[in-house]
Amino acid sequence: MVQFVHPSRDDITLEGVLAALSDPMRLRIVKSMVSRHGCMSCTEAAPCPEMAKSTLSNHFRILREAGLIHTEKKGVEHRNVIRQDDIEARFPGLLRTILGFCDEPHQGKD
To answer: Model's pTM, two decimal places?
Structure first.
């Protein structure tokens, strides 16, 4: 049986969260999971359908080890949920702030 490693709330670090969210694909995964407000399989949360399963699994592992998601195996699926309460307790407003900047167009200097 698969055993997933999830850091305790107190072991979630700012560096780990920011590093995990520095990848555009992982940021898209988290944003999609937050907008859906519930458990999602890895496939449902995938930012693009053509992504290799091994790549997707790696993204979810990084998010899990950073403390951003909690994963449980249900049958043949891995069900994932954002650990919003834990992230909010450790770093109030951080996730909301980061996700708020996701859709802003990049503005260059004139």
So the answer is: 0.86
Segment 45-75, tens digit of pLDDT: 877 878 888 899 999 999 999 999 999 988 8
CA 6, CA 37: separation in Å to the nearest integer?
Answer: 20
Alpha carbons 69 and 61: distance in angstroms, whole number = 9
Q: What is the 3-state secondary structure (H, E, C) of 75-108?
A: CCEEEEEECHHHHHHHCCCHHHHHHHCCCCCCCC
Rounded Cα distance between 64 and 101, Å, is 22
Number of Cβ atoms within 10 Å of the Cβ of 110: 3
